[in-house]
Amino acid sequence: MNTSLKTAFFAEDEPLARDLLRDAIYANPGLRLVGEAANGAEALERITRLRPEVVFMDIQMPEMTGLEVLRRLDYLPRIVFTTAYDQYAVTAFELHAVDYLLKPFTGARFAAAVARLLDGPVHARDTLDGALAQAAGRNGAPARLERILVRDRGRIFPLAAGEIEYMKADSKYTVIVARGQTFLVRIGISELEVQLDPARFVRIHRSALVNLDFVDSMRADEQSQLQIHMRDGTVLGANRDASKVLRDMAI
C-alpha cells in the first residue's frame, strides 16, 4: 500500500454526482477513498469515525448542511466544498476550505483542487475552540473577513478585503468594486459590513460602504453632508450620521 496517499472521503446526496466524485477520487494517484455519505448526518458520523485527511463536501444535503457538518467536527480535515450554489463561498472560505468547486465542474478543475489539497500539511485542530472558533468569532462576535470569493468570466478567485474599494447594495446582490472591476456577490451589504474592519470600512449610507484607503477626499455639500470622492473618480454621498462619524474620525 502506498502510505503517501491521502485518505479521502466525500459527502454528496445526488446519485450521479456521487458516481462522478467516486470515479474522480479513484482515478487520482494522490488520493485513497475510505468512505462516503449521502446526507449530512451520515457524513458527520463517518468522518468523525474514519478521520480522513481530505473531504469533498456538498453543502446542501438532507438532515444537515455541509457547513454544519464542518462546524461540528472535532478536528479539521482539508476540505473542498462541492456545490451548485455560489452564495456560500464566503462562509466556506472563512471556515478554512481549501477550495470551492461549483457544479458541474470539469476534470481539470477537480485536478486543480486536489493539487491544492495535497500542497502542504493537513491542518489539525484539537477542538472547535481552535481554527473554527477563530473563523466564526468568539462569544458570538463575527470574525474579520480577510478575503471573499468572487466570480469573473466563469472563474472564482479570492479577493483580499483590503483590495475592496467600495460596495453598493443592488437588490439581493452587493456590487463590489476592486481592481478597477465590479463583481456581484449574493451576500447582503449588511452581512459583509459586520465582518470588515470598522477602522477601514465605513457605511456611508444604507446602500454604500467605502474603504477609507481608497478615498481621495471628502467635501461638504450645501447641507453639510460629506461627498466622498473615491480615487477612481466616483463620488458617493454620505448621510448625516455617517458624515458626523467621518468628521469625528478626523484628527
- Would you give the CATH topology of the largest domain? Rossmann fold
Overall pLDDT, averaged?
Answer: 80
Helix content: 25-40%
Rg value: 21 Å
Beta-strand share of residues: 25-35%
In N-to-C order, the SSE pattern is EHEHEHEHEHHEEEEEHEEEEEH
Reported CATH architecture of the largest domain: 3-Layer(aba) Sandwich
Morphology:
elongated
Structural class: alpha/beta
CATH 4th-level superfamily of the largest domain: Response regulator
Distance between the termini: 66 Å
Quantity of strands, as a count:
15
What's the number of domains? 2
Given as residue ranges, the uncertain stretches (5+ residues, pLDDT < 50) are 121-142
What profile does the largest beta sheet have? 5 strands, parallel
How are the secondary structure elements laid out?
Layout: E1 6-11, H1 15-27, E2 31-37, H2 40-50, E3 54-58, H3 66-72, E4 78-83, H4 89-94, E5 99-102, H5 107-118, H6 131-136, E6 147-152, E7 155-160, E8 164-170, E9 173-178, E10 181-185, H7 189-193, E11 201-205, E12 208-211, E13 215-220, E14 226-230, E15 235-237, H8 240-249
Helix pairs in contact: 2-3
InterPro entries: CheY-like_superfamily (IPR011006), LytR-like (IPR046947), LytTR_DNA-bd_dom (IPR007492), Sig_transdc_resp-reg_receiver (IPR001789)
Domain Response regulatory: 7-118
Keywords: Phosphoprotein
What report would you give on this structure?
This protein is α/β, with parallel strands linked by helices and 251 residues long. The chain folds into 2 domains: 133 residues, Rossmann fold (3-Layer(aba) Sandwich); 98 residues, OB fold (Dihydrolipoamide Acetyltransferase, E2P) (Beta Barrel). 28% of the residues lie in helices and 32% in strands. The chain contains 8 helices and 15 strands. The strands form 4 sheets. Strands 2-1-3-4-5 form a 5-stranded parallel beta sheet, sandwiched between helices. The chain has a 5-stranded antiparallel beta sheet with strand order 10-9-8-12-11. Helix 2 packs parallel to helix 3. The radius of gyration is 21 Å and the shape is elongated. It starts with 5 loop residues before the first strand and ends with a helix.
